[in-house]
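User: Let's play a game. I give you a shape written as tokens, and you guess the letters that built it. Ready? Here's round one.
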């Protein structure tokens, strides 16, 4: 048994929290340790996506400065 079978998942199709592998992987987000955490999956994804976008913008700005300096 893999660890995901004993975790909580958020089903993006139904909007429901599930325990274990109840639905196809394409419909699941997770795993999460608690049902509460899984119920906030969309907000968590949104926050992480925003943080990654900021990191990528910083990296891109750094590359532009480096290229302009000839380094």
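Assistant: Ready! My guess for every position:
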């Amino acid at each position: 048994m893999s660890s995901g079978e004993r975790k909580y998942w958020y089903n993006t199709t139904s909007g429901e929290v599930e325990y274990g592998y109840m639905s196809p992987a394409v419909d699941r987000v997770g795993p999460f340790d608690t049902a509460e955490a899984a119920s906030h999956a969309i907000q968590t994804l949104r926050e992480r996506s925003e943080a990654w976008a900021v990191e990528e913008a910083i990296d891109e700005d750094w590359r532009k400065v480096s290229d302009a300096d000839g380094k």
